[in-house]
Amino acid sequence: MSLSASVPACALPPLPTQPQGTAWPGADWPTGSPSAGTDTKRLHALLDDAFSDAGRARLSETHAFLAIQHGRLVLERYAGGPWTAQSTFPSWSMAKSITQALAGFLWAEGKLDINAPIDAPEWQEPGDPRRSLTWAQLLRMSSGLEFVEEYVQGNKSDVIEMLFGSGKEDVARYAASLPLIHAPNTHFNYASGTSNILARAIGQFVGGGEAGMRDFMARLLFKPLGITSAVPKFDAAGTFIGSSYCFMTARDFARFGLLYLRGGVWNGAQLLDRQWVDDARTPTPWVPESEPMGYGAHWWLGLGGPGSFSANGYGGQYIVCVPRLDLIVVRHGDSIGDFRDPVRDFMRAAVACFG
């Protein structure tokens, strides 16, 4: 089912069942072994290569890799040095999926209508076409707002200017000040600016500025999941930089993935509405065929095979949820530019090893 009025409902692959005795992490993850049928020889060979000098030549730096299957930690490896199980890793754009979860808590409380317009102070002039832009359109990167998501220094780049240049003090204001260049719901444009407009709007509902937002994130998301390492970053205006900045350990990122793989349930309690989770993995119709992955609502689709969904970060950070295997695969590293596609191929190959 889709909550977005303009997105047709579709049959979604089922999420894993949760029979009595399903494993849940407490202070630490329960451990286990991959399912029968997993090609462990091939899987370990892939990891040996990824963490080797030869692997660095193809994938750049791999800092961490772990797998959770049936709620148990079945595989974990770190590069060593500064990269260990205790290290907090950058999220980059995996933070977008966290932002989607935060909006979901407000939606479940009846505080926001996903098909209602976003109340942005930059869009208050009568006749401004941006006044009609909705939460759903921004969550699906289909608002039609101008935004250049370019990471090469020297090229025109709204994301670099927003995060590191003139927009860094107020990231949402920078993004919301850009013009509408496409009719909404006609053009897919992956844009970090939309996530920061959403994050500011969430903060407006929550109230209390940065302190209020920190409390909201901790109370509804981090503490219930046992996430103790989270370090979200805010700009000078008090907006959570929901496009890019929430640091955690790899194990804590896996907890976030498990919440979605379990349909919003955590240890028997429905923390995040199941409809909101399903909307996250409902395909957005306007994603072009040239895009190698589909897109839902601030989650990518298909990296781990049909029915999978993932939170993806700029430097090769991934939380890949694979319902048919009851599997979560987390990867951290520093793999930008030409390394992006080889890392994605590596993630697909790793998932394909599991039975």
Structural commentary:
- This protein has 355 residues and is α+β, with helices and mostly antiparallel strands.
- The chain is 32% helix and 13% strand.
- The strands form 3 sheets. Strands 2-1-11-10-9-8-7 form a 7-stranded antiparallel beta sheet, sandwiched between helices.
- Strand 10 and strand 11 form a beta hairpin.
- The protein is globular, with a radius of gyration of 19 Å.
- The chain starts with 39 loop residues before the first helix and ends with a helix.
Kindly identify the CATH topology. Answer: Beta-lactamase
CATH architecture: 3-Layer(aba) Sandwich
The CATH homologous superfamily is named DD-peptidase/beta-lactamase superfamily
Order of helices and strands: HHEEHHHHHHEEHEEHEEEEEH
Compute the number of strand runs.
11
Domain count: the total is 1
Task: Using the CA coordinates, give the radius of gyration.
Answer: 19 Å
- Total of helices: 11
Overall pLDDT metric? 97
Care to give the gist of this entry?
This protein is of the alpha+beta class and 355 residues long. The protein has helices spanning 40-50, 53-59, 94-108, 135-139, 158-164, 171-176, 192-206, 209-225, 250-261, 274-280, 340-352; strands at 61-69, 72-78, 231-232, 246-247, 265-266, 269-270, 294-295, 300-301, 309-313, 317-322, 327-334.
